[in-house]
Amino acid sequence: MIDEEISRSTIAISVRASKLTARGLAYVLAAAGRQIAKRHRVAQRPHGRQSVKKLMGHGETVNSIEVEAPKLFDRMARRFHVDYAFYQTGPDKYLLFFKAGQADAITACFEKYSRKLLSKSKSSRIPIREQLKRAADQLAKEKPRKKERGKEAVREDR
Predict the structure, then answer these.
(1) What span, in angstroms and rounded, lies between the C-alpha atoms of 41 and 35?
(2) pLDDT tens-digit profile of 100-157?
(3) With contact defined as beta carbons under 8 Å apart, do 101 and 60 qualify?
(4) CB–CB of 58/83 below 8 Å?
(5) Is 44 helix (H, G, I), strand (E, B) or coil?
(6) pLDDT at residue 30 above 90?
(7) Which of 30, 41, 53, 145 has its CA 20 to 30 A from that of 95?
(8) DSSP 23
(9) Which helix (H) or strand (E) segment is 117 a member of?
C-alpha cells in the first residue's frame, strides 16, 4: 500500500545519453517541470458545483437542461460526483450546464432526481398550523372523559 503511494507520487526520468551535458540535463529538468505543472493544473480543476464560466473553462463540450429544484439536484449530484453549474433564467427556472463526457453519471443522477421530485409533488405539504389543529382535534376525540367520582357515605346501623 505504501509502495503504491510512493510509486504514484514519484516521477521517473530516464535519459539516454552517452555523454550528459549541462544543456541536456537542463532540457530534461524543464520537461519534468512541465509534467509536474500539468498534473498540478489537473488537480486544481474544480469539481462539483461551480460557476458557468469555470465549467466552460475546462475545455470540454457542455450540455444544458432546464431544472426546477436546484437544491434537490445538488444533493443528487454530490452522490454521483458530477461537475455542473446553474444559470437562472427566470423565477424558479434554472438551466443546468454539465460536461458532455459525464453523460452517464448525469443520466443516473437525473433518474434519481426525477424520482425524488415526483414523490415530493405527490405528497403535497400541509401547513404546520393545519397539522397542529388536526392533532389537537384528534387528541380531543381520543381522550376519554373522566368520570366524576363521589364517595357515598354508607352507614350501617349498629
Answers:
(1) 10
(2) 788 888 889 889 988 888 887 766 677 888 888 988 888 888 766 666 777 776 777 6
(3) yes
(4) yes
(5) helix
(6) yes
(7) 41
(8) H
(9) helix 103-122
Spatial distance between the Cα atoms of 80 and 105, rounded to a whole number of angstroms: 6
Q: Please tell me the total count of domains within the chain.
A: 1
**How many other CB atoms are found less than 10 A from the CB of residue 149?**
5
pTM: 0.49
Q: Which amino acid is at 110?
A: F
Instruction: Give me the sheet containing 84-90, strands edge to edge.
Output: 62-67, 93-99, 84-90
pLDDT in tens, 34-71: 998 888 877 777 788 888 888 888 878 888 888 888 88
Tally: H helices and E strands in the chain: 6, 3
